[in-house]
Amino acid sequence: MPGFLKAKALEEALGRLERYWKPRPRAIKVPLADASDLVLAEDVISNLDIPPFDRAAFDGYAVHASDTYGAGEDSPVPLKCIGRLPAGTWSSVKLRAGQCLEIATGAPLPNGADAVVMVEYAVARKDVVDIYRAVAPGGTLAAIGIKMVGVSGRPRVAVISTGAELRSPGSKLRRGQIYDVNGPTICMAIEECGGEAEYLGIAGDRPSQISGFVKKGLSSSDVVVISGGSSAGAGDIVPSVVDRLGRPGVIVHGLALKPGKPTFIAVVRNRPVFGLPGYPVSALIAFDQLVAPNLRQMIGLPPLERKTVSAKLSAKILSARGRREFVPVELVRGNEEISAKPILKGSGAITALSAAHGYIEVPLEEEIIEEDEIVEVVLFGRVEHA
User: Fold this and answer.
1) pTM confidence score
2) Which of 112, 136, 267, 286 has a CA 20 to 30 Å removed from the CA of 292?
């Protein structure tokens, strides 16, 4: 097993994992009704034209779908409106990038358009229309008689928590015990990535218990995620237990992340085992950076692109050179600008994330971000008014 905490950059760790395991989609056949939110694993060719010409299903604006990508309630996309097309008429207009055309229900789409934005998600102002919701080009499988469809199956992920002090939510706590936060939270994160989470429970901290839980996860799932027991303490034995279960075993132990340094990666029986730190914030950051991208690849989804917002830092941030640091921040919208307040509660405080609107990424080579510096905040959700 590699020496403890020979911290590797995230890219190096992912590259090492790729030498032993690649996140390939698993093609399955499912009834069309069960294919919602899944990704096609094969081309579907229609023998029918549905409808006989491309037409608007509702009042709105004909657009190039790609022009609307990124549109949202806080970030509308402006398009130039070049006219109006009522139902029962035909237009020879060719719609160009950055343009839209007002269109009535039943009217044929103009040449160049591949989607329609509903009128409810657009606001017209003179010859410009602000688009507040992205649309995608598409057809319908049911209309061409498709019953079964080939899709990329959801990756099955076994989730294990370790620690003798942990108890399941709902049970009675004794002195020195705490509830298992990581298990349920990681399961929710897996579901958000399109995976199927199977929470195996709390393995305690004895080698035989941990080994039994991991073997069960390897036999029933595509991926195993363990939280806790990966650090340098005498009771942190999870990496050595996993390493003995099969070759190549542990291939990375320690990431150049803060929080998240104790993370380890193993490959056993051609399945990846991700060992996350026990502290909740560390576990979720490591999951987000390491596990989530692999799960999305396994289901055929592209990398997640989160929105960012520029903000003025309200306090200096000191970071250690050689580690990529993720600092949760609370955003406060003022009259003229947004300020970002670092939440420095430590990786053991789950409230550090519950109070955060997003995070700042401090690169490996930086040690200080000064107060009042403009930073890019990666958003968890919407920015609320203070």
Assistant:
1) 0.71
2) 136
Instruction: Pick the last residue of a domain from 278, 298, 318.
Output: 298
Do 237 and 260 reside in the same domain of the chain? yes
Give the residue ranges of the chain where pLDDT is below 70.
1-6, 45-53, 138-145, 230-236, 345-353, 381-386
DSSP per position, 151-212: EEPPPEEEEEE--TTEE-TTSPPPTT-EE--HHHHHHHHHHHTT-EEEEEEE-TT-HHHHHH
Q: Tell whether 214 and 315 lie within a shared domain.
A: no
pLDDT in tens, 294-340: 999 998 888 877 888 999 999 999 887 788 899 989 999 888 889 99
Provide DSSP, 39-100.
-BSS----SS-SSSS-B-SSSEEEE-GGGGTT-BTTBPEEEEEEEEE-TT----PBPPTTEE
Per-residue confidence (pLDDT) for residue 99, from 0 to 100 = 96
Parallel, antiparallel, or unpaired for β 166-167 and 338-342?
unpaired
- 190 and 101, same structural domain? no
Q: How many domains does the chain have?
A: 3
